[in-house]
Amino acid sequence: MIEGEDIAVRRLATYATKRNLRLGRCLGSGVHGVVHEAESKAFPGFVAVKAHRNSAPYERERDAYQCLAHAHVREICGLSVPQFIAWNDDLLVVEMTMVQPPFILDFGGAWLDATAPEFPPEVWDDWNRKIDEEFEARANDVRRVLAVLRSYGVVMLDVHPGNIRFRN
Length: 168
What we know:
By secondary structure, this protein is of the alpha+beta class. It has four helices and eleven strands, in the order αβββαββββββααββ.
């Protein structure tokens, strides 16, 4: 890899080599890391692999996926949930199935119920206003999705149309 290249991309390449995956196009990147599609011999088609830059969001995402996998959650309120395939604690990488809209994904900003931070009411009010603004007529649908997630012990705080997408 090129000197100075993003650490998450280096972790992703190392993970792909270890898992015998062929990396494909970048599906997205953000503050927590980078997501690529990858071709796997173990699964038909492609999988998604996400390499994190830091351990805290990686551990939250891994733990949320493990919690949902343990409960056999494949969809919530008609939204597909990626299925957890594998992870690597040393490389901070999670591997999951690909999903198409409608979906819910990206649990780097999620917490297990017992570890979720507590916020004062005015923070929750601002958060709910943001949901209203970003989702408009679907805001209550988003709240139902979040309530179901919470019933499984997952508190999703990073809520926006990139992470919760309905069919148009």
